[in-house]
Structures are given as C-alpha cells and as structure tokens.
Amino acid sequence: MIHLLEHCRIAPPPDSVEDKSIPLTFFDMPWLYFPSMKVLFFYEFSHPKAYFVDTIIPRLKHSLSLTLKHFFPLSGNLIFLTDGSMPEIRYKDGDSVSLTFSECISDLYFHHLSGNHQRTDNDFQSFTASTNSTPFVVPILSIRVTLFPNSAGLCIGLTHHHVASDANTFLRFVRSWASINKLGGDATITENPSILPFYDRSFVKDPIWIRSKFWSHFGDIKSEAFQPPPRRTNTVLATFILGRAEVQRLKKLVIPQIPKKSHVSAFTVVCGYVWSCMVKARARNGEEIFENGSEHLVFSADCRTLLDPPIPTTYFGNCIICFIVTIKSRELIQEDGFIVAAKLIGEAIQERVLKNKEGILKSAEKWVEDLKSLNRSRMVAVSGSPRFDAYDMDFGFGRPKKFEAVSPREVDSFSIFGCKDNKEDFELGLHLPKANMDAFADIFTNGIKPHSCL
Fold first, then answer.
1. What is the C-alpha to C-alpha distance for residues 303 and 155, in angstroms, rounded to an integer?
2. What's the rounded Cα separation, in Å, for the pair 71 and 41?
C-alpha cells in the first residue's frame, strides 16, 4: 500500500547551533517512559507526483533544516546515562531528524483517513513516522510525508517524544515549519522575538526538589528493560463536533444547578458531557457499573503564565499541571450526570488555579503517585486544548483538511481542539473500543438534540 520515495536525515544548517545538553525539569520527568505523541495533518494537494518530487520535497527538506536551527532539541536525543544519573536531552553537531517521503497507492485512503467516521488504529499506522531507539539513546522527533495519488492529497505525520516538550511547544514548531516552508525563509522567526523558543530552564523553580523525588521513582525503571504497554485491540477513532450553540445550551443547563461563583466554562461543560456519555456507553454495552465504584477524568493545563513568577509563553519544554477529577459511577450515568461532572471539573480548576493561595504547584510532588493509584479501567484521559489551533498550519498548500492525534492509548481518551472552520466550535477526537464507540455516538448525538433533556 505504501511505496518508499526517499529517506533522508535533516539537520540544522552547518555551524548554526552549538552542542548543548538540556536538563529535564520536574515537568518533563513524568513523560520519561510515556508513549510518543503521534499526529497527522491531512492536506488537499492537487499537483502531480512530479511536482511533489521535484518541488515540494526539496522545499520541505530545506525549510525543516531552517526550522530546526531554532528548535534544535528536536534534532537531538533523549540520553539515558550509564552511571544512573538523571537523563538529559542532548544535541550535538550532526544530530538530525529522520524524514521519510512515501506514496500511497490508493487515493480512496485519503478520503477515508481524513473523515470524521470510525477508523481503526491500524488504518493510520503506515502514515505515522517510526523512531529507531536504543536502550540509551531515544530520538526526539521523526517525520513521514505521504503523497496520495490522483491529486487527492498528502499527509504529514510527526512522532514526537513528550519528554522534550508539551503540545504548546510542539505545535509552535509545526507552525513555524509551515510558515518557513510557505514563505521560503526563516525571517518570520528571527525578526520576531515573540516566536523564538525560550530555553532558560532556570526559570522553572523547584524549591522542594520535586525533580529529585520524581527521579527516585522513575530511576528504578531501567531504560533497557522498559516495555511500553501493549496496544489495545479492536479500538477505533472517530471525530465528533460540538457547535457553539450546542455548547451554550449545555452551559445554560449547568449554570442554574451550581453555586453562582463556581467556574463554568465551555471546557468544563464539554468535558463533563463527553465523559458522562463515555461512561453511559460502557453501561449500555453491559459493562458492570458498581454502586460505589469511581470514575476518573485526567486532564492538564498549560501553566506558563500561572507560575510565580510566570515564564515566557514561548518556553521550550513541558509546563503543564495535572488535574484528576473523581466521581461515583452511579452519579455519572444518571440523566443529570454531566451536570455533576461539569461542576466537579469546574471546582477542580477553581481550587487549583483561581483560589489556591499556595500556588498551582501545591502537592505537585504527589502527581505521579496520584496517577498510579487510579483504576485505569475507570479512567478517561483528555488531551489537547481548544486554545491550540491545530489547523493554523499552512505549508503553502492551504490549511489542513483534517488533524488527527493517533497516539497509542492505554485507556479510553479524547482530544479537544478548536474546529477548522470555526474556532468557537469544538472538535472531539475519541479513541474507544468499537462497541463503546457505537453506543457513545448514539448517546452523544441524541443528548445534544434541542428537545433532549439529557
């Protein structure tokens, strides 16, 4: 199905970056053994293969090199040191990113993969980039670009190790690469300091040695012996859209039911609604929902501007805090379950961000232990943010037709981003077992109909 056109390695321009080692902060450490993030950008592309090979491939290679000059850690590797000390991200002259160009033999696959309907994990595997890791050297980034025949389109797939940076940083990199490719040079970055990555990790304060506490946990895991969790079978991905009018209707149902000063936002009601629909789907499919069982929602938030003192929004690395919301299963599957869920999500945000006089890093040293204590079969993970514009990535052939996060998941999950055509609408990417996805689609769709009482 896939034919190789070219494989190469792309480095920053010669002598443009000095050798550097970047220490991991306590924000990075929890992602040390986390599966790599895999994202796909699908673009409509009406040019023939010859134009792709003769023009697009050289342009993408050149623009990637220029971009890596500014985002040089992505060219480097995560290094596990043999003396047992903390790993680090290291860039040395000559380090490079694996870049593969390939061709799919079927144009029908483009329309299938870039739709909103159900697709299997295996459908996407040939379009994601792979990394060649060793027990002590792990590449940060690899890229695959695939052309579909008959002027159907192309796909840019990126595989990125989360330990190097969060979605904020990573999408800034993709956006910068797209801009440089479109404009033919990196002046847009070098002439605008507000875009340049900020690398000074001394701005991340760690007065209670959280980093060392995390390493005391992760350091017991030997990199050469670590095995990623097995891939779940019979899982599918599908995309659902919640329009602005539907979100406002959900908010109107929530606001009268909770205290006036509670935090109610589009994010809280969307997450509450999706979470409740996911648990109801499991119950509909015969999964036993215990009377006193608990359900857990895990999500994160960018905290660059919330630290004291705040750090620049262009800080390169991870800078997100974790939230865990727990609710009794029986409450979540009730008709008003989403209202209770939205209330608890809002309270978690309010207590941590809006009312916490001790700072947002209170109890941060317990993040890893708290996550390990959860029943993963009753856990839903949320990724992304409606503030991240995943569709603002124009390489010169227009905005993406579809963005897809296809990272492997141990647990049920959904991503949340702004929509391509209207940033006030929400694009929800769900990753569920096939039977649960079928039930979710029915519950989700009927629940947001104007006549529904939810």
1. 32
2. 20
Beta strands 37-43; 426-433: pairing state? unpaired
DSSP for 69-97? HHSGGGGSEEE--TTSPPPEEEE-TT--E
State how far the Cα of 113 lies from the Cα of 111, in Å rounded to an integer: 6
Own/partner contacts of 280-284, CB < 8 Å, gap of 24 or more, are: 280/332, 280/333, 280/337, 280/439, 280/443, 281/432, 281/436, 281/437, 281/439, 281/440, 281/443, 282/436, 282/439, 283/333, 284/439, 284/443
Maximum average pLDDT range among 123-137, 218-232, 268-282 = 268-282
DSSP string over 285-299? TT----TT-EEEEEE
3-state SS assignment for residue 140: coil
pTM above 0.85, yes or no: yes
CA distance linking residue 146 with residue 59, whole number of Å: 15
- By the 8 A CB rule, do 294 and 327 touch? yes
Distance, CA of 192 to CA of 440 (rounded, Å): 45
Q: How far apart are CA 445 and CA 242, in angstroms?
A: 10
Q: Which residues contact 114 (CB under 8 A, 6 or more apart)?
A: 42, 153, 401, 402, 404
**pLDDT 10s digits, 54-102:** 999 999 999 999 999 999 999 999 999 888 889 999 999 999 999 999 9
Q: Indicate if the alpha-carbon torsion angle 255, 389, 98, 115 is positive or negative.
A: positive
Tell me which residues are annotated as active site.
162, 394
Residue 367 and residue 298: Cα distance in Å, rounded? Answer: 11
Sign for the CA dihedral angle at 271, 388, 246, 343 comes to positive
* Location of structure tokens 């900020």: 198
* Cβ neighbours of 55 (radius 10 Å): 11
* 3-state SS track over 334-385: CCCHHHHHHHHHHHHHHHHHHCCCCCCCCCHHHHHHHHHCCCHHHEEEEECC
